[in-house]
């Protein structure tokens, strides 16, 4: 898909991977709606890139629908959706304080997995009604998983489960939406310089950085944004999860 002139929705667009993706899409000529639960952060990014900022809780059916509708009214029907909204929680199944809080497990699943699907269903319903572009394409969805979906560490049970769900729904989503000309691809980042990683304990961050083979560093959000742009532009990418991880395989802890 030629990105120039298209409308893109980016959840979690106020910081980290979402911000980098919003900037990368705007640099390619997209009209970008920056969606984030933190409206002030989204507004700062939107001002920089000439987009619009919309407060959006991806777990809310009504709130997400309102955000998607507002984006369509102001920028036109969206053909690009990038799901970057997410949270992390570090808790063992059974720790010193007892069993993993069930409400915390539910919250992580609700934001990372259910929230992604919520945005997908609303976006796809509208995109499927747009006129097809070259090759019959109507839209592209890029989801964010994590290498934790495949080699989750101790204390990542909720996070790994949520990201494993994102990986697991990628192919059936692509098959479901093929008749509408909508592609679905998931990126599974390794260890990136994001606010999520910055919020982890220092010893955890240090241990994560030590295991990256090459290049031996944390990933830059702009590198995620560059891959998201390529996915949108490359029509043969569909139904797949791409690890963006510098060959890292996470140890147990």
From TrEMBL:
Q: Name the domain of life this protein comes from.
A: Bacteria
| One MF annotation (Gene Ontology) recorded for this entry | oxidoreductase activity
Recorded hits in Pfam families, A to Z, give: adh_short (PF00106)
What does the UniProt keyword field contain?
Answer: Oxidoreductase
Could you tell me which PANTHER family the record lists for this protein? 17-BETA-HYDROXYSTEROID DEHYDROGENASE 14-RELATED (PTHR43658:SF8), SHORT-CHAIN DEHYDROGENASE/REDUCTASE (PTHR43658)
What the record says about family reads: Belongs to the short-chain dehydrogenases/reductases (SDR) family.
Q: What is the protein name stated in its UniProt record?
A: 3-hydroxyacyl-CoA dehydrogenase
């Amino acid at each position: 898909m030629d990105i120039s002139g298209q409308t893109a929705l980016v959840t979690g667009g106020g910081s980290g991977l979402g911000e980098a993706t919003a900037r990368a899409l705007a640099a390619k000529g997209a009209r970008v709606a920056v969606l984030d639960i933190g409206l002030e952060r989204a507004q700062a990014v939107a001002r920089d890139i000439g987009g619009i900022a919309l407060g959006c809780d991806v777990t809310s059916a009504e709130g997400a629908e309102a955000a998607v509708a507002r984006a369509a009214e102001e920028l036109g029907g969206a053909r690009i959706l990038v799901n970057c909204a997410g949270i992390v929680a570090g808790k063992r199944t059974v720790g010193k304080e007892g069993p993993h809080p069930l409400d915390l497990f539910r919250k992580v699943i609700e934001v990372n997995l259910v929230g992604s699907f919520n945005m997908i269903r609303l976006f796809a319903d509208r995109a499927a009604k747009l006129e097809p572009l070259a090759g019959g394409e109507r839209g592209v969805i890029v989801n964010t998983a994590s290498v934790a979906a495949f080699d989750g560490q101790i204390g990542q049970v909720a996070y790994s489960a949520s990201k494993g769900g994102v990986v697991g729904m990628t192919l059936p989503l692509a098959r479901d939406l093929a008749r509408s000309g909508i592609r679905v691809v998931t990126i599974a980042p390794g260890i990136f310089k994001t606010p999520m990683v910055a919020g982890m304990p220092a010893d955890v961050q240090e241990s994560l950085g030590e295991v990256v083979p090459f290049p031996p560093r944390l990933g830059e959000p702009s590198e995620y944004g560059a891959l998201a742009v390529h996915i949108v532009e490359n029509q043969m990418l569909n139904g797949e999860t791409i690890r963006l991880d510098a060959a890292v395989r996470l140890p147990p802890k």
